[in-house]
Specification:
By secondary structure, the protein is mostly beta strands. The protein is built from 1 helix and 15 strands, in the order αβββββββββββββββ. It folds into 2 domains: 34 residues, no CATH class; 195 residues, Sandwich (Jelly Rolls), CATH 2.60.120.560. The structure holds magnesium ion.
Length: 255
């Protein structure tokens, strides 16, 4: 009798514990709309006309064939490179030029052409360059049938990386650069918290794929990490004696 009573009490306790076990709401079953976002809608940007080489509707136009109003000499004063026939040509005696406006991250489009009478070899042949935020040079050089050190050829972050391809068009033809650049973020001690990165496409061919820039592009010595904010685009007037190259159709989209 006592054994039966004990069993009944044990069973009763077990049932009551089960009855007290809490239940919680379960996640709703997933429906397609739960992973579809409708806002914000990407802004509408009207592409440029590919036949007339015009800029997209939201671009900062840095050169449209008419004047160098968006530029100044890197030494101060007017940009004294030569505008003619819808293009402008490096004036080596006038030094580098920089944009008047400064930029953070951007997409940059520019076209450049090596003259057909180009002379010189290696780095002394159609050398120029486009500096991102005035710090990091993407090399511009006539590398058509012209070998040089590989980490200094066209499309390199100068002396930091060998481009994935040599996509040069021959002298007299226009080369097209599309450069996608993410500006760095700095720690308080001046080191990179997030290093700058760059993708370079020349004539539709990827030369650099999201390359992490190591610092300034030095001719002598290693890259330096120098804290900076927004900066201008700089075009290089290189000291070599070869015939100067020309530029056209330059625009930039801020990101
Ligand atoms: Mg250069």
């Amino acid at each position: 009798m006592r054994k039966t009573l004990t069993a009944i009490i044990a069973l009763t306790l077990a049932f009551s514990a089960a009855a007290q076990e809490k239940t919680y709401p379960q996640p709703e079953p997933m429906r397609p709309g739960m992973t579809e976002f409708w806002t914000p809608q990407p802004k509408i940007v009207t592409p440029g006309d590919i036949l007339t080489n015009s800029a997209p509707s939201d671009a900062v136009v840095l050169f449209d064939g008419r004047n160098l109003n968006a530029w100044q000499s890197a030494n101060g004063g007017e940009a004294k490179w030569t505008v003619h026939d819808g293009v402008f040509t490096v004036n080596k005696s006038a030094g580098d030029i920089i944009t008047k406006e400064s930029f953070g991250s951007f997409q940059l489009h520019l076209e450049w052409c090596v003259p057909t009478n180009i002379t010189g070899t290696s780095q002394a042949r159609g050398n120029s360059g486009v500096y991102l935020q005035d710090k990091y040079e993407i090399q511009i050089l006539d590398c058509y049938n012209n070998e040089t050190y590989a980490n200094g050829q066209t499309g390199s972050v100068y002396k930091q990386v060998i481009p994935l391809a040599n996509a040069m068009r021959k002298p007299g033809e226009w080369n097209v650069y599309d450069i996608i650049y993410s500006a760095p973020v700095f720690n308080e001690d001046g080191t990179y918290k997030v290093a700058p990165t760059v993708t370079v496409i020349q004539n539709g061919i990827v030369l650099l794929n999201n390359f992490t820039i190591r610092g300034t592009t030095e001719y002598i010595g290693h890259p330096k990490v120098v804290p900076h904010g927004d900066g201008p685009i700089r075009l290089q007037s290189h000291g070599d004696k070869s015939e100067p190259i020309s530029f056209r159709n330059i625009w930039l989209r801020k990101m």
